[in-house]
Every structure is written in C-alpha cells, then in structure tokens.
Amino acid sequence: MAARKILTVAEIAAADRRAIEAGTPGIELMERAGAAVAEAIAERFSQRSVCVLCGPGNNGGDGYVVARLLKARGWPVEVRALAAPQSADAKAAAARWDGGLTAWEAPLEARLYVDAMFGAGLARPLSGDAATMATLLAAHPESVVAVDVPSGLPGDSGDPHGPVVVAALTVTFHAKKPAHVLQPGHELCGEVVVADIGLAEAHSDLTENGPEAWLVRFPWPKPNSHKHARGRLVVVSGEAWNTGAARLSARAGLRMGAGLVTLLSPSEALSVNATHLEAVMLKGFDTEAELEQAAADVDAAIIGPAAGVTENTLVNVLALARTGAALVIDADAITVFRDDPEELFSVLDVDDVLTPHPGEFDRLFPGLLKESPDRIAAARRAAQQADAIVLLKGGDTVIAAPDGRACVNTNGSPWLATAGSGDVLAGFIGSLIAQGMESFEAACAAAWIHAEAAELHGPGLIAEDLPGLAPTILRRLYEGRLG
Ligand SMILES: NC(=O)C1=CN([C@@H]2O[C@H](COP(=O)(O)OP(=O)(O)OC[C@H]3O[C@@H](n4cnc5c(N)ncnc54)[C@H](OP(=O)(O)O)[C@@H]3O)[C@@H](O)[C@H]2O)[C@H](O)CC1
Ligand SMILES: [K+]
To answer: Where does the chain bind K(+) (predicted)?
Structure first.
C-alpha cells in the first residue's frame, strides 16, 4: 500500500506536461479523464438525463468527452457551453461531440449535472454566468458531479473566494489536490474519486493521512516484548482541582500500547489522582528538579492537559526538555510560552510534538495562519520555526515536520468536538512515540485512530469513551497489517 500523495496544481500540470512530452497527446489524456468521469457516473447513478456544463478550458474539454461517452451508453445528454472552447485539446474534444448545444440559460430540467466549467487552476473567483450557475446548482448538490474540482474551488487552498459548486461526487485525475482534503473544499467535493490517467509517478512531501502512510511501521508488540520494552510514558498532572485531563491522556497512552504509563503528580494532588488510577502508576513531585528526575528514564512525556497556565508549567516543560524523553506539548503547556515562543523552540527537536488548536497555534506563531495561503503552509512553516512536529488541530488536522513532510487528516469526525478529546489525542501520540514510532508518523497514526474511534461511537461520544474504543480500531489495523 502506497501513501496517498497530494499534488499541487503546479505539480499536476508538470506531470501532465511530462506525459505529453513523453509522447502521450493532450487529447489522449483528456479522453482518459473524460472516460474516468463517465465510468464513475455510470457506476454510481442509474441511467438518467444529464446536463454537461462546459467551460472554455481543458476542464470543459473533459466535459465534452463525458457527454459523448454517456450518450454512447444511451444516456440522454445535453451540453451547455459557458464560452467557446479555447485550447486546442478542448476544441478537439468539442468537435467530437455531435449532440449540439443547449442555451446556457434554458431551464435546468436534467436529473444529473456534470460541472466541467473550471478546474483546479481557477485564476479568479467565478463571476457572471458561471457564478449564477454555481448558485443554481447549489440547490441540488446530490445531483452534481464535478470534473477535477467543483468549479470556483481553487485547487491549492480549498478555500473559495466567491460562488462555488457543491458536488456529490468529484472525479479528479492522478492525485488529489489540496482542495480535496482541506476544509471547506473537502466538504464541497462530496465523494472524491482519483482516476488513473496514465501519468508518471511524481514526488510529493504531502500525503493524505491513512494507514498506508504508517501501518508497516506500527509498533506492534513482539513475542518476546515485556512491559519495559513496550515504551515508558509519563504524563504530568495538573493541581488537585485539575487532574482529570492528565488522567485521560494517561489512560489513552496505556490503551495505545505503551507498556508503562506513570502519572507524575504535584504532591498535593496525589491523593485525588490515587483514587482514580488502576494500571496507570503514580509518582509525586514538588520541584522541577524532582520532575526532571522522575522523567529521567522515560521514552516520552506529555505535558499540557489541564497543566495550568502558570510559571510552574513553564519550568516543568523546560525540566522535561532536559531529559532524553520525546515531548508532547499540548494545551496549557503551549499557552504558557505565548510571551516568548522562542524560549520553547530553543529546547525542542524533531522528536517533540506540539499539538495546538488554531487559537494556541496563534499564540506560538502570531499571524502565521492568517498570512499563509493555507493550513498546510502554515503548519509547515511552524514546524520549521519550532524545529518540531506540529499537529494543527481542526476538521482537517494537518501534521507537519521540519523537513517539509506534511499530512492532512481527512477522516476528522464532528463527534470529536467535545471536552477532553485533545487530551486523549496527546495520550495516543505520546504512547506511540514511547513505543518507538517516529514522532511525525506517531502523530499521523494517532490522529487517524482518534478520528476513527470517534466515528465508531458517533452520537453521545465523550472523551472518556475514546480510549476504550481504540482497541476495535487497533484490531482492524492489526488484522490488516500484512496488506
Ligand atoms: N493531468 C490532469 O490533471 C489533466 C487535466 N485535464 C483537465 O484540464 C483541466 C485544467 O485545464 P485548464 O485549461 O488549465 O483550466 P480550466 O479548464 O479551468 O480553464 C482555464 C481557462 O478558464 C479561464 N478562466 C479561469 N478562471 C476564470 C474565471 N473565474 N472566469 C472566467 N474564465 C476563467 C482562463 O482564462 P485566463 O484568462 O485566466 O487565462 C482559461 O482560459 C483540469 O481541471 C482537468 O479537468 C486534462 O483534460 C487531462 C489531464
Ligand atoms: K469543475
């Protein structure tokens, strides 16, 4: 199983050019693209009246091919042209369409619409007739199939700056573009089918998260594993009134497979923690030096869940950074560095993971989200700045590494919008790192499993449920690990 690459608009155009230079004519690529769309439609919809909306470029060219091939299958097809075809390939494809044209503004009476107005390289917002059509189609998203991307959606950002088509199915070519995975683009595309049109493999540092990207390196226990060899994880507890979040992380860490998980608790919170722990161990500390000593021999440490936005949390992060443990820095442990992010960055390295939501991200990287073209670019720059893995939370969680790798999580679940779910995610990440998984892949795997677990439960999910749902997802992965 290969990781699912995501290519930018420029990268896909380059792959396209290489194929043409290597001897495949552009019209042949267009025929393959149109055939893939027609096939995807025929697989999903029973025969019905179709209206194909063609723009002036090659996206429209694909549309003429779809129209011809559906008509050849006996489907009633009408074509409307937003403007005359402009490129040589689109002109050639239009010339092969022999069914005539329907006026653009005629009433919309078909049962299925193929949106071939504009592709991923859209240069400016939709306007005029195209914008009106996008608005009309928005009333029937279940009847719209988009070619490459829903028109109006810029391929690299997934963030429309004007009217946009909403589709039930989007058929794209060779690889997904950022718009297919980033919100709101992901939602606007409906189901996304990636069709092979015979382009050569292209390198990309950007992937869609999924087991293909990391399952072969998942740290399953070996027959001779013992608990000390399965990873030692510590979680730093908050003060007596704020202990639950760290316990959630610790429990999640144990469920994700770490052999030994210890809650490191301020002494005054020991008794409240002790009454709520079983397999998770407990150890007290009073000073940063004692914390450093308690974490001296561990593989990974989590700090942040309900840690408190206090000077203590700040010095505790610095104390953990002096140990050899990989750090997962979440929530309050991020916020405490808002006045001096460099102080945090100076102690981090590529084993460490920051897990900010957008608000926390803005505290460490002021203005970066707003000034970046998209969340992927922002997370990548943040990872370089911090020299650590950055997991930027959201419906489209992005994980980025300082070396430029980035991964977008597309199985995000709305049920995760509940208190404490981030604490569980930190626990999953810390656990996988403690078991020896490389931190970027650990963050990817944890984010994916976390969302799968939430989807498995659905309505009524609370964070306390998540650790107990992980074993079902782990079993599926375990059974699928050999391919
Ligand atoms: N490998 C592949 O992925 C293949 C993709 N194919 C298909 O080709 C399109 C991309 O085609 P392209 O011609 O580059 O782009 P468009 O079809 O979107 O059209 C560009 C033309 O539209 C004009 N334009 C752009 N934005 C607007 C707008 N908002 N309003 C009006 N007109 C607009 C633009 O004009 P400029 O003045 O900006 O130059 C262009 O004239 C891809 O999506 C696939 O569907 C191949 O068929 C197979 C290989
Ligand atoms: K389109």
So the answer is: 59, 115, 151
